[in-house]
Amino acid sequence: MPFDPIHLAEKVSRVCSRSTCGSSERMVFDHRDFGSPAPGAYINLAGCCLRCIFCWVPHHALEPHEGVYLTPSEAASLLLHRARRKRSFLLKITGGEPVLPGTCFQHLKAMLEHVEDALKGATVVLETNGMLLGYDFDMCLDLAAFSSLVVRVSFKGCDEEEFSRLTGAKPEFYRLQMEAIANLSDAGVSLRASLVSSFSTPSSIELFRVKLSEVYPEVAKELELEELYLTGELKKRLEERGLKYRSYRASKPSPEWI
Ligand code: SF4
Questions:
Q1: Element (H, E) at 182
Q2: Which end of the chain has fewer CB atoms within 10 angstroms, the N or the C?
């Protein structure tokens, strides 16, 4: 049954964050460790408001009920420690979905403050599915305060129907991804966009690029195409949902495969 991702975000935010003595804590999980060949240092925040069929995140981390809770300063220290180990000034906040409402968002902002205070000259990439940033313009305004920040919106599908089949969410929420681009741009936040392209035809990708360029031409020009590895497990899930893996070869390869 297709679901409302904003409603799910509120529910998930409550289970993967908590307030303690005037501070906040957010659950963190790890599936990319220190040895990851991907550039930069990562922190993975638990919880998500979508349920993508290709999701590489362990299921228990999408709607967690137990795990490691970290304060903003502890989460920032973990990320900074990893950056030092890699001698990198590229820091990535990902998940799950880092941008969830309520306590989760307060935690994210406090964590960004700690990171910016501790490491001058860094670039912090916030990877998001864009649902909340398309829904709530004030969140984008809050993020505009962080000069080191680049928000990378990862589109799940080229259109409403593909989005719904890939994520399980109601098709009408597809528009929130495009609205995230418009909101971030209006708020003055640096941004990039990527598209999971393994299930799309070349023509639907080009049509998507045109739609994106109507909202933000520069972002459309730099669109990253994300190709997925077709594992045995993914193949099984796709067959069950009647989805076709097309493995469209990106003309502009994404810097990292997912
Ligand atoms: S948005 Fe990302 S973390 Fe959330 S379900 Fe989709 S792939 Fe997984």
A1: helix 175-187
A2: N
Q: Which CATH architecture has domain 5-241?
A: Alpha-Beta Barrel (3.20)
Residue ranges per domain, the chain? 5-241
| pTM of the complete model | 0.92
> Ligand 1 test: best mutation among 30, 48, 152, most atoms within 8 Å of CB?
48
Ligand 1, atom 6: nearest CA belongs to which residue? 52
CB under 6 Å to ligand 1: residues?
48, 50-52, 55, 57, 62, 95-97, 129
Cα–Cα distance list, 233 to 53, 56, 115, 239 (Å): 10, 11, 37, 10
Six token digits for residue 26:
């957010």
The total of other beta-carbon atoms located within 10 Å of residue 248's CB is 17
Residue 34 — pLDDT band, cuts 50, 70, 90? very low
Degrees, nearest 5: CA angle 100-91-45: 30
**Using one digit for the tens of pLDDT, what is the confidence trace for 43-88?**
999 999 999 999 988 888 888 887 899 999 999 999 999 999 999 9
